[in-house]
Structure formats: C-alpha cells, structure tokens
Amino acid sequence: MSGDGRARRFVRAWDDLRGRSGRQVVGLLSAQVTVARTGAVLARSTASGAIGRSAARTRMAEVEHEGDAARAELVRILRRVLATPIDREDLFRLSRSVDDVLDHLRDYVRETDMFGPRELTFAVEPLQAVIDGLDELENAISRVIDDPGSVTEAVLATRKSCSRVRQLYQTRLTDLFAGPLEMDTLRRRELLSRLDAVGRRLGEAADALADAMLKRSH
C-alpha cells in the first residue's frame, strides 16, 4: 500500500474512532427518509386535491431523483467507512426498504394520473399514516448513536403507523365493495393496493432497524 493509501486509511480509522463516520451514516439515512416523506406529502396533496395529478407526477419524478441520489451517497459512504453504528447488512436493508417506500409512492402518484378515478379523498388518511410512520422512523434513526435504548420504542411507533395503513386499506376496501361494481371501483382498488404496499415496505424498514438494534445490544 502506498503512503497516500495508508494515510487515507488512517484518517478513516480515526474518524471511525471519534464516531464521525457513524454520525455521517445516520445523517444520510435520515436524509433518505426525509425525501421519502416529501414523496408521501406530495401524494397526500394529490389525494386532497391541493395539487393536480399531472403536476404531482412531474414533481414526483424530481423527488425520486433526490431519493436515488441520497441512497447512492449512503452506499458510497458505507463502502468507504471501516465501522458503522449498526450492522452493515441491516443498514443496506433499511436503506433499500426506504427506497422501496418511495418507489411505491411514485407508482401511486403515476397511477392516479393514469387511472383517473373520480376522486382520491379515500387515500388522504392512509397517506397521513404513512407520513406519521416516516416521522417516527426518522425519530428512531436519529437516536441510534446517542440514545440507542429508546430506538425500539420509536420503531414500535413506526409499526403502529404501518398497522394503521393496513387497517385503513381493509376498511376502505370493504366500503368500496359494498357499493356497485364499476370501473371506478377497480381503479380505486388498485390504488388502495398500492398504498398497502407502501405500508408494508415501511414496516420492513422498521423491522430492519429493530433487527440491527437487537444485534447491537448483544
């Protein structure tokens, strides 16, 4: 190894010992969750009628690009640092699941524009539950280094929001099929299924963080 290579490795090791790399990783994870939340807020705005579907679809493409950039930067840092605050494999799982949340939100917004159901108010409450869950997940991630003992409680709050999404999906679906079977019924069903998938991916993110904290405690 060259002298420059040894020097860079020493700097990385020193940063790891001082915890700087760990905080950088946590900050990048939080940034990724923040972008996903932006996507969820945009989706809710579409459902409430605050923004047009076509305009939301265009804006969501920009949000997705931001999410891809945040994940790419996290992956780059994870390949460089010598030590991470939680298990490296679980970090990848967590990041991938958050990315999946954003991907499904993107698909939801795109499908609202493509399918064109008469109205989308049925999606406002499930999307608010997703936003709440992302807030709790970001709260959990922010505690990983300084207050690891409280992470599990915040993760449980995330899971509670995911359960809320599932409950609302089932309730909305029951109400939907209680009415006449029309083309609009099928459109809403597809969009509800997409929101359910968002909740499930968010739950997987929470599980990845919970698993990581369990390993850390042993």
From TrEMBL:
Task: Tell me which stretches of the chain form a coiled coil.
Answer: none
Q: Which InterPro entries match?
A: PhoU-like_sf, Put_Phosphate_transp_reg, UPF0111_domain
Extract the signal peptide range.
none
Q: Which family does it belong to?
A: Belongs to the UPF0111 family.
Record protein name field: DUF47 domain-containing protein
Question: From which lineage does this chain's organism come?
Answer: Bacteria, Bacillati, Actinomycetota, Actinomycetes, Streptosporangiales
